Amino acid sequence: MDIHYAIGDVHGRDDLLAMMHARIEAVHRVRHEGKPGVIVYVGDYIDRGAKSVQVIDRVMRGVPGFTSVCLKGNHEQLMMDCLETSDPEVWVNWISNGGRETMASLGLSYDTARDPIALAKALGAARLQWLEALRLTYQAGPYLFVHAGIVPGRPLAEQKEKDLIWIRDRFLDSEEDHGFIVVHGHTPSEIPEWKENRINVDTGATFYGQLTAVVLGQEGGPRFMTIEGAPGPGP
What we know:
It is a single chain. With about 240 residues, this protein is α/β, with parallel strands linked by helices. It has one domain (about 5-230): 4-Layer Sandwich (Purple Acid Phosphatase, chain A, domain 2). The chain has helices spanning about 15-30, 50-60, 75-80, 90-105, 115-130, 160-165, 170; strands at about 5, 35-40, 65-70, 135-140, 145, 180-185, 195, 200, 210-215, 225-230. The protein has a five-stranded mixed sheet with strand order 3-2-1-9-10, with helices on one face. A five-stranded mixed sheet has the order 4-5-6-8-7, with no helix packed on it. Helix 3 (about 75-80) packs across helix 4. It starts with a strand and ends in a 7-residue tail after the last strand.
């Protein structure tokens, strides 16, 4: 298995992501030089943080010398739902969950809410193409990477998209052997969680001012790296 770095929910904290990318480059250069490196983003690039569109652009650019794997989070889906309709209920659902900050980072005012054409134009063709290509799952070695989790006891091929990006208690409370260790985000914790059947790398980039990555595929087992900043939407 190549060396994998799985980064938790960024939520518009481009400042923390920039520092995490630099940390990954430094660690890989010192500890894993010559080995292929893969950066897996578990989704929720946007919303709540002030630099949501900048996070998308940074992830799209990638880190030189590393392969990027980009998963879809529920917040990307909330925004993508708004690209399809002017239904106020759909738009309020996104905006009330941090979409207002994403709109601001795109140069859109609240007055343009419910305007899918304006949103699509602000995102632009390249970002739209990237959003459409986001994956729901990725497997490497003994690990399954997914945004929120899986329904315990259900074969991977039968998992539903809604569960993969939204599930919480049914998955989090399960002690079942899933056949792989699930690496996920979605549910923020003040410290990363490492259990027998799952690893949670969402440490609340906006809630707690922390962005975490887990290093996998190295001797000695998983290792966490956390970048700390101030809580809130960021600079």
